[in-house]
Design brief:
It is elongated, with a radius of gyration of 24 Å. The longest helix has 48 residues, at 155-202. Mean pLDDT is 83; it is low at 1-7. It has 8 helices and 5 strands, in the order ααββααβαββααα. The protein has a 5-stranded antiparallel beta sheet with strand order 2-1-5-4-3, with helices on both faces. By secondary structure, it is α+β, with helices and mostly antiparallel strands. Helices cover 60% and strands 15% of the residues.
Length: 239
């Protein structure tokens, strides 16, 4: 009977977790910007992952760590340490593209993170998990989950973190695509407006107006959108 009760309790817990994830997904999709989405992901991680005291998101490109979101200064300091040492579970999650890294107890010696673990312990952390944020199309970064207490991230916490990271990655990818689409539409509008100015004020055909913008972009090594914006502001033909 006790085993049955434990199984029933576990099922109820995961059902509630699933409902909370659904709420999180709706919340993430409702955000207006990529940064707002990132900020909400780390806040949800603190609420939905047992014993999570702090959370953050970072990316690693060409060995450079960029902190994208953090629940507090201690997370930003941890990101700085990973950048300085080129070492850490979250750093490795991105560079190795491995879905999960865990340091159960930062007071123990870890050969893989021999320098990082003691430094994070000095910040008052007891354990840490790093989850790769990814979709089929691209690797986006790592979700870092910290606890002040050692040995608290059990299998259930790891599973919850992995599921949350998977949902968060999809929402983050969607937010980035929406932002890129918005920028593309804005660029198209500015180029069209600039071409209209050149056609009206300088007697150019549509084809020649675009050719003038493109040549100015290439000659000055400036993005086409910036050339178009200057034409819209000044009304002058670019040289």
């Amino acid at each position: 009977m006790n085993g049955w009760l434990m199984a029933q309790e576990s099922a109820e817990v995961w059902e509630k977790f699933a409902m909370a994830l659904a709420d999180m997904a709706r919340d993430l999709l409702a955000q207006d910007t990529v940064q707002a989405t990132l900020d909400r992901i780390v806040e949800h991680a603190k609420v939905l992952i047992n014993d999570c005291d702090e959370a953050g998101i970072l990316t690693v490109r060409r060995g450079e760590v960029s902190a994208l979101a953090a629940t507090g200064d201690v997370v930003r300091e941890a990101d700085r340490i990973q950048q300085e040492l080129q070492e850490g579970p979250c750093f490795d999650a991105v560079t190795d593209r491995r879905q999960l890294y865990v340091i159960e107890d930062l007071s123990r010696p870890y050969e893989r993170w021999s320098r990082f673990a003691p430094e994070l312990r000095k910040l008052g952390m007891g354990s840490v998990m790093g989850f790769l944020l990814f979709t089929d199309e691209d690797a986006l970064g790592a979700l870092n989950v910290y606890s002040h207490t050692p040995d608290v991230f059990d299998e259930a916490a790891q599973r919850a973190g992995w599921i949350l990271a998977a949902h968060a990655a999809v929402a983050l990818s969607a937010a980035r695509k929406q932002q890129q689409l918005g920028h593309a539409l804005e660029t198209r509008h500015e180029i069209g407006e600039a071409m209209g100015i050149l056609m009206e004020r300088h007697g150019l055909s549509e084809e020649n107006a675009f050719a003038v913008l493109k040549k100015a972009s290439q000659d000055h090594n400036i993005k086409l959108r910036e050339i178009a914006r200057t034409v819209c502001e000044t009304g002058e033909r670019p040289r």
